[in-house]
Amino acid sequence: MERCRARDYGLEFGDLPVGTQNAITDVPGVKVGHCSTWKGDGELHIGHGPIRTGITAIVPAPDDLFTSKVQAAVHFINGFGKSMGLMQIAEVGTIETPILITNTLNVGRVADGLLDYLIRDKGLRAPSINPVVLECNDYFLSDIWGRHLAKAEVVEALESAAGGRVQEGSIGAGTGTAAYGYKGGVGTSSRLISFEKNRFVLGALVVTNMGRKEQLVIKGVPAGKLLQEYDPPRELGGSIIFILATDAPLSVNQLRRLAVRATHGLARTGASSNHTSGDVVVAFSTARRIPAAADQPVITLPELVEQTFIDSFFIAAADAVEEAILNAMFMAETVIGRDGNTLQALPLRKVRELLQARGVIN
């Protein structure tokens, strides 16, 4: 059966409307790009392959991010991760580079490639730059030990970044990742939040790599337990990366609170973060750009969303994350990796039968 997004199957997630693309790129100015590296088959030969990995790039806003930063916050659902750049975000509340997501052992090389791109290609001259690189572990399918990604792949992901439709499934950082024992990958979704004359967008993007098959829940249906034809390896079950973006004028503390709500969307799909999960949320707002060097000691903040109205954003975050996770699974195809290791695609026909039998969809 042809792969399609969860909403195309008649699934609905909450009451808020979705954006034009139902993607993180519905937030004005946000761009997403991918580089996928796919090479070889058969037995693992470290340094040579097979390779099933990649990079996903999220560009939070147009123009130079270093001189005109975006406000941001981070939340660690479980901190068994090797991501880079999060300490400074937590400390000062800004992002100053594109966000890259890759595999666990490639974080250093990808960060180096990003720095080289900014310094040599873009002419950035700053003694301190905070590259943001997040990770999931794709060792089950890929020669992760070969660390095959470097500047060329970073540049490809960044230069391909665009607005509009976002490619999902087994692509970019999701090329070799799992979800609930099935093939996972990249997924995205968005929500529109309106107050009188104001309308804001909240978008979510995830790279899945978490959960065991028996944990999978789809709209309240214990699908993982009911799908009997496939018995994935017990060793699967790792991390998930969340990116939340909005054009609403949220403060750093409000963004931190928003990031926490990604947990609720994850839980709806059945996961409980494991000991070895690096489950990280980065949330940012494009509403106000922060200059690298202010020319006056006191600055004027824009209007902020009043605290009593923030619940709509919390609801939007949970709904969008839940849908993004399922989009990643619905769009991902079966992948055979190193040593014949295989992650099966979620069987959409059988999932539809389960959901129809329980009245979730028609």
TrEMBL record:
- Protein family (similarity comment): Belongs to the peptidase S58 family.
**Protein origin, superkingdom:** Bacteria
Q: Which organism is it from?
A: Abyssobacteria bacterium (strain SURF_5)
Which Pfam families does the record associate with it?
Peptidase_S58
**GO terms of molecular function:** aminopeptidase activity
Protein name (database record): S58 family peptidase
